[in-house]
Design a protein that fits this description.
Elements: H1 4-57, E1 76-82, H2 92-106, E2 112-118, H3 120-126, E3 131-136, H4 145-160, E4 166-176, E5 179-188, H5 192-195, H6 212-287
Parallel strand pairs: 1-2, 1-4, 2-3
Antiparallel strand pairs: 4-5
Length: 288
């Protein structure tokens, strides 16, 4: 049995851990509210531009814009992997990494599958498991539209150049602090009819001013940039929701261990007192 001193050391360590996990939970809760608000504000614009692009793009030929043109043969795939920079958020990052690893192993018919990593956790996981085309450092802790525009511009250029035939994005979609669902979707080439359930009903002969090519050049780029931006916001909200839940569970576990070791310490102290009393009584009896 451990001594009272050893139990005191364990209890002190557990109480310090409990303070840290409580603090981390409160910080994540504060950041979660911030990103939830940003996500809610962005969702209105995201839905509007998605419907607008769908309505216009289904009414013109796909040759009007290179990002609408599907390849006859799909050989090279690029996956944009969005994770967090930090850990201590449960299975948040592991779920995304495992899904990408599984997808790659099940789709070996492609000649090349490369990754673009947003977030250190995904980059570290796949450093020796897959070919990483590019790593966008510090892109996930505080997402900005400028960062999303830079990523979207790079993706557009490599897709138009023909280096890759399809581009996918995978990340954790935020529903609540207790629920984040991993999704895997194709973002390039843009499929107008897949943008909205009402897409097929929008096949209308519009009169364009400016020309369709000029209009789509602006709209599709904005749609792609904003989709990446919304993905980064969802990932940030999901990260803090997952961390808040993980730290709450860690705090509860620490409390249970504190109760357990407090009881064991009291038993050890009582046993030591009892032993000392027995020794005193035995010594007194021996002197008689």
């Amino acid at each position: 049995m451990a001594t009272t001193k050893e139990y005191n050391v364990k209890l002190k360590s557990l109480k310090n851990t409990q303070k840290i996990t409580k603090t981390m939970k409160m910080i994540s809760a504060s950041k979660l509210r911030k990103f939830q608000q940003a996500q809610a504000n962005a969702k209105i614009y995201a839905n509007s531009i998605r419907h607008l692009v769908s309505r216009i793009a289904v009414s013109v030929d796909s040759s009007c814009h290179p990002l609408l043109q599907a390849r006859a043969q799909v050989k090279n795939i690029l996956i944009v992997l969005v994770t967090s920079d930090r850990g201590l958020c449960g299975a948040f990052n592991n779920n995304v990494n495992k899904q990408v690893l599984t997808w790659i192993s099940h789709n070996n018919q492609y000649e090349k599958i490369d990754l673009v990593c947003c977030g250190k956790r995904g980059h570290l996981f796949f450093q020796k498991k897959a070919n990483i085309n590019k790593f966008y450092k510090d892109s996930t802790p505080n997402p900005t539209f400028e960062t999303a525009s830079r990523i979207g511009d790079d993706l557009s250029k490599i897709f138009i150049s023909g280096e890759y035939d399809e581009v996918y994005v995978t990340h954790n979609q935020f529903f609540s602090p207790l629920l984040q669902k991993t999704i895997f979707k194709k973002i390039l080439p843009v499929d107008p009819r897949a943008l909205s359930k009402e897409g097929p009903q929008y096949n209308t002969d519009y009169i364009f001013e400016p020309r369709p090519e000029e209009l789509l050049t602006f709209l599709i780029s904005q749609y792609l940039f904003f989709r990446i931006y919304f993905t980064l916001l969802e990932n940030a909200a999901g990260e803090h929701g997952a961390r808040m839940t993980a730290m709450d569970n860690a705090t509860k576990n620490a409390s249970e261990l504190i109760e357990k070791y407090t009881l064991l310490r009291n038993r050890a102290r009582q046993a030591a007192i009892t032993t000392e009393l027995i020794e005193i009584v035995a010594g007194a009896e021996a002197l008689k």
